[in-house]
Amino acid sequence: MFTPRAQNPALAASLTVLAAAFAAGTTLLAKALGTGVLGPEMHALQISFGRFLFALITISCATAVLHPKFTRPHLGLHAGRSALGWGGVTLMFAAAAFIPLSDATAISFLNPVFGMLLAIPLLGEKVGPVRWSAALIALAGAAVLTRPGGEAIELGAVLALCSALCLGAELILIKRLSGREGPLQILFINNAIGLLIAGFAASFVWQAPTLSQWLALAGIGVLMAGAQACFVNAMARADASFVAPFFYAALVFAAIYDAAVFRVVPDAVSILGACIILTGAGLLAWREGRVRAPFPAPRK
């Protein structure tokens, strides 16, 4: 599942688009749970618990089947990575209840931008004019999507920005882990620790889910595990610079899902902000692909 494969660009592109569809689906289900579509409104902390619970179950099944070789883990890095990942996921689920899915998805593409900016002081990386330009362009798009003056939408955009910041910081720890441990081991430990954190936090806001809510929570976990598996396999079959742009299809899927389920259609501001962010993120992905860094796997 995580071993290098023969190069197959067509399959890599298809797997990446499928990963994008799955990732957008998790945000759709989180919005349905957080806005009361499937029962009483569910707190983002509880939605996050369901995401980690069912993702861990899915990854545990994959581990049992594949029998990967586990090495001694760096628990300190795993704990920090899991805490940041849990924070990013929870904030994104909270944001989905306030803003259009297309806006939340577009802002999530700032993850690698924040990761690049944080790598300067934390990893001592040098950033050239192309990467600085990409970051400034993407951040300008995020400023458009905050829509000053619209209280609910502005709050949702701020939550999504905080989510992107947490997940961008998580990328720093993922870089440090990826060179010393296998992908499936990292995913398993991450979701196990994340479940402990999410379970403790959710205990303060817990309400008994309905059957439909349990099914939605399970769907979030399974879809995210599927998105991660598809993306990792895509990366094994093509260069990162080729794969990365196809994941931007998540923005299209998010808009389609939102229109179909919530009758929310992106307006001119959403389209403008998303285009600006995609320009910056695309420029950064192109630059990273020419150098060495892979595009980050989808996280929710």
From TrEMBL:
Keywords, alphabetical: Membrane, Signal, Transmembrane, Transmembrane helix
Annotated TM spans: 47-67, 79-99, 105-123, 155-174, 186-208, 214-235, 242-262, 268-286
Cleavable signal peptide: 1-23
Domain (EamA): residue spans on this chain: 13-146, 155-284
Chief subcellular location: membrane
Keyword set includes ATP-binding: no
GO cellular component: membrane
Compartment(s): Membrane
Short name of any one Pfam family annotated for the protein: EamA
UniProt topology in membrane: Multi-pass membrane protein
Coiled coil location: none
PANTHER family reported in the protein's UniProt record: ACYL-MALONYL CONDENSING ENZYME-RELATED, SOLUTE CARRIER FAMILY 35 MEMBER G1
Family of this protein: Belongs to the drug/metabolite transporter (DMT) superfamily. 10 TMS drug/metabolite exporter (DME) (TC 2.A.7.3) family.
Name the UniProt record assigns to this protein: DMT family transporter
Organism encoding this protein: Roseovarius bejariae
